[in-house]
# Entry
Amino acid sequence: MFELVFLGTSASAPSVHRGLSAALVIAQEHRFLIDCGEGTQRQILRSGLGFRRLDKILLTHGHLDHILGLGGLASTLGHWEALEALNIYGGASALARVHRLMEVVFGSGNIPQAGISLNPIEVGALFEGKGFTLSAFSVPHRGAGCFGFTFEEETRSPFDNAKAEALGIPAGPERRELVAGRPVTLSNGRTVQPDEVLGEPQKGAKLCFVGDVSRTGPLHKAVAGADLLAIEATYLETDRDMAKSHGHITARAAARLAQKAGVKQLALHHISRRYHPQAVLAEAQSVFPATVVAGDLDLFQVRRGKPVEKTNATQRRGGAGGSRWERRPMQRKDAEAQ
Ligand SMILES: [Zn+2]
Ligand SMILES: [Zn+2]
# Structure
């Protein structure tokens, strides 16, 4: 399962109800912060998700509404014992800006000692977890080096217990071998092939996250069949020319992409203050009904073969702060932040 928490869903500037761009993806024990607009620290606190294990940050691009919160977040983490390593992934121009920001926070030449590493992204696999892959794909926006991200579980064939029982396969290592795709020979001398006890292969959950984008054409392949696509919808069709000149898309364009690419659920973010969210929703739903306009702290759960579920981060099972350990007060490293 993947969980996506929107921490900030406003475009360009914050509003009363929406913070600037940031989202968190939880995949097993890993947490990936995607973008870090101004005010993200406070949104993390409000979400109750905590700062622990927040060691991987993915940047869709380097515009200020997506990165200005990094200085504050790194400063906080650096002054508390929570920061052992902070791995920031982004395109070259985004990383150059972040480097300058980190120089202000930690001092020139001190970035590596602070535990910050800046990692250029290339299209393709970015991170391998147990049973899932995170990959990056190219996104057209203003300038080069803009990326979208796909989290995808591996295809798995469910183990058919009834068949295994009928074949007399004991519970234990023999079954593990078969699940791993290797034949086993039973004590009665019979060899069982994996396909005798495995069901039809089941596609893993797929979550795609796209930030600012100027055209949807190049994205069809990358987001095809996604269980959940999160993508910006900064403008409405009435302002299509403005969308084009600013390098953004309309709600209708996002919906058409979801429809054509066989996406199951669409979540729109990067919402402009110029529109009522209901108008954004109505425009998208007229093309693709399975659309929601994401709000701050909305949590989406993406499970293999199941419909996407939406709740609020503060309602997350296990308590607002996840485990008790995550809510433990952090120990201060020094007396005061400088
Ligand atoms: Zn933006
Ligand atoms: Zn932008």
